[in-house]
Inverse folding.
């Protein structure tokens, strides 16, 4: 069997709460049970939610609980850096691959435009239905896209979620889980500041850090459908 490598991947957006500790503990116990490796990865790509001192607090808490990582910031390991903000340049290449293959596109809608759409009823979703009516590189003529890219303002890169598909995967607790792509939106994978979003950075790092099992809070279950699509786009 492949070596078990699991990660606790908190975002330093505030104090570590008990649900986070529980996730860390499950990862730790799973690693220990299988003679595997427990990794701490700091998911700090969302600069707007970054809270100074939160990372130190997380590490201090893990030390206090004696849930010590085998690899992570300040713990060593061959797969670093273990802080995503320090891996920024690495993600761009993967995003470009998605664009080149037609699995991602540039979106130029301004925050105000999106905000106005969100007030609509039924609720707005950037997806296969709406994307052809919006301001993006799937719709606009190439010369206008080039101008907007040079202009550099309000550029987001979104993944192109396929229409009418059922994404199915195995969850060890829930069993077989399915999501229809009709429920999923075209998630932003990279923002204008060149920082990847959680989804993009998370799947690239799980791949590069050779993570064997993903153990995370249940609130992330629906994101797994997006992650599976991204894995498929890369042929992983
Ligand atoms: N950064 C996410 C969090 O804060 C990680 C979720 C995951 O493990 O994929 O919970």
């Amino acid at each position: 069997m492949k070596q078990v490598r699991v990660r606790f991947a908190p975002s330093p957006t505030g104090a570590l709460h008990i649900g986070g500790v529980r996730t860390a503990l499950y990862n730790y116990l799973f690693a220990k049970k299988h003679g595997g490796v427990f990794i701490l990865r700091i998911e700090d790509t969302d600069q707007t939610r970054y809270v100074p001192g939160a990372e130190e607090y997380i590490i201090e808490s893990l030390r206090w609980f004696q849930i010590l990582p085998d690899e992570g910031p300040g713990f060593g390991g061959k797969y670093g850096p273990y802080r995503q903000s320090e891996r920024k340049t690495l993600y761009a290449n993967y995003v470009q691959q998605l664009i080149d293959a037609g699995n991602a596109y540039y979106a130029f809608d301004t925050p105000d435009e999106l905000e106005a759409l969100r007030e609509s009823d039924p609720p707005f979703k950037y997806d296969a239905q709406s994307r052809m009516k919006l301001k993006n590189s799937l719709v606009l003529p190439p010369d206008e896209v080039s101008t907007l890219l040079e202009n550099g303002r309000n550029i987001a890169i979104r993944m192109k979620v396929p229409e009418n598909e059922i994404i199915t995967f195995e969850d060890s607790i829930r069993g077989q889980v399915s999501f229809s792509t009709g429920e999923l939106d075209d998630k932003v994978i990279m923002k204008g500041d060149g920082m990847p979003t959680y989804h993009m950075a998370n799947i690239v790092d799980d791949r590069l850090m050779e993570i064997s099992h993903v153990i995370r809070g249940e609130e992330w279950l629906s994101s797994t459908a997006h992650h599976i699509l991204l894995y498929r786009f890369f042929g992983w």
Q: What stands out?
A: The helical segments are 18-33, 54-65, 88-100, 111-118, 142-151, 198-208, 221-234. Residues 9-11, 43, 198, 202, 216-217, 220 surround glutamic acid (CB under 6 Å).
